[in-house]
Every structure is written in C-alpha cells, then in structure tokens.
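User: Structure with zinc ion, tokens only please.
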Amino acid sequence: MPELPEVQTTVNFLRNKIIGLKIVDFWADKEKPIRQAGGAAKFKKMVVGAKIKSVWRRAKYIVVDLEGPYTIFIHQKISGHLLYGKWQQLTVDNKHLTDRYGQRSDEEWISKEGGPLKNDRKNQYIRLIFFLSNGYQLALSDLRRFGRVILVKDDKLTDVKELKGLGPEPFDLSLLQFKKLFRKSFGGARDKRGKLKPVLMDQTFVAGIGNIYADEILWEAGLHPLSRVEHLLTYEIEKIYRAMIKILKKAVELRGSSMDDYRLPSGEMGRAQLYHRAYQKTGDKCAKHDGGVIERIKIGQRSAHFCPKHQVLK
Ligand SMILES: [Zn+2]
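Assistant:
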C-alpha cells in the first residue's frame, strides 16, 4: 500500500501538472469506483467544470481541492495509483491496439502514448478518468478495486473517517516534539504502550508510516520491532527520529517504492525499493556487515523484517 513517500511523490508530480486546469469531463467504469451516495453520476455533475486549486497529502491520502465548495478525497488503498496521460477507449474499430494480455472488455482504455502507461500491466486497470482542459487525463488504475474516491464539501473534510484522529506528519515534527509524543503516549486515551513496530505504524501516533518504512526505520535505528515502547531510552527515541526523517526523505527523493502496484503518475517505477535493507530481505546478509542475516517474524496479522545482530530485543 502506498505510504508517505509514494503518496508525496504522486502529489509532487500532480502539482506540476494539474493545478489551474479545469475538469472538462469524467468517466467511471460499471463497477462503481465512486464509493458514496449518488455514485459516479452525481460525482460527475459536481466536478465537471470545476478548476483544480491545489493538491496535497495528509498521511497516506491525497486531497484535490477544487474551486468552489468541493474537495476530492482519494485513498488509493492496496493497488490504486493515480496516472497522468492520454488514453483512448477500446472500440470495435481499434481493437487492433491490443493485446498481449488476452481478452479485454469494451470498457477498457489504452494509453495513446507508448512507455509504461501502455506497457506496464500495473497501469492498465483504469477505473475512472478525469478529463482535463489541457487535453490530458488523470486516471485511477486499481487492480483490486479497494481505492476510495469521494467528493466532500470543503468544510466537511475533517469529518472524513480516514482523516479523523490522525497523528502529526513526520516532517512537521521536531526532535523535541517527537520525544514528547512518546512520553505523552503513555496512559490516557492515546496510550501507545506496546510493541514498537505497530506503534510506528499507528496512524493516530504518527501519520504516513506503514509496513515497508517501519521495517526500514527500525533497521536504520538499530531497534528490534518488538521493543516495548514504554521502555525506550531517550537516546533510542532520538535514533528512531533521525532514522525516520532520513529514511522517509530518501524514499521521497527516490520517488517511492515500486514493490507491487505503486507507480508514479507517469507510469514509471520508483526506486526506493533498490535501497531497502530489511523489508522483504529475509535471508540476506545485513548491509551493516555485522554478520547478521535478516529474519522475518510475525506480529499479529503482519510481519516484521530485522537483523538479529544489531536489532537486539532487550
Ligand atoms: Zn545488522
């Protein structure tokens, strides 16, 4: 699932392309990718004609603010990713444009331009398209169809369930604030006692970190994923903070991790996965050359990858 670096990369890309453009038309497939009352028909009525004012990220979510009273909220979920390009719909006349992947339905869209938008299978599950005033289109490719796209009144944005109770953004936190977050988290409604990796991934603690970057941050910081948060020493919290900023910043520079479905809006892959040291590296020698071999353990329904040599459970 896209985490902070992937979503930030998408937002950075789109900011350079779509701000100031008008939405001139909208298309959604028959499987109803618009998950709210009124569906695609109502959504289309409200967005067509509107100008795109801004695009921003909060946690793992994308917010597209339109001129006028509405905002588009997008949670890409497991396989969803926004793409920017030009597509044409398959018709009886242009069926020859396809297809090395077998049967396609008459609803499918094919990129007009070559390259990854056309050739990478991950980019070919087009569920909805915003047609823009510059002739380009903003599309959602979403193999597994879990993505959530809804239209919200500007003043109701804070009521969107995903945006409620979110913790602070990692890049907005100073070291001091980060330390306070840990101390504050013991006791009371925001009690975050427990195992370190699940706490880092808890969106009400700090927003935007998921399975991939939690493993990478803890590898970098040299802390075991099962460490008890309430037993962390000050210098260990400092290590987590520095690792968090370093790992997330580098991942944004590398334009995210394309391990599974995530792609840039251009259809290209990010490169952060080439620098992963723990996540899905089970059996590899630790890159710190300490003689450790990366292990995988279960934490509830999820897993964690770590080096038993330099990430010791105390
Ligand atoms: Zn190691």
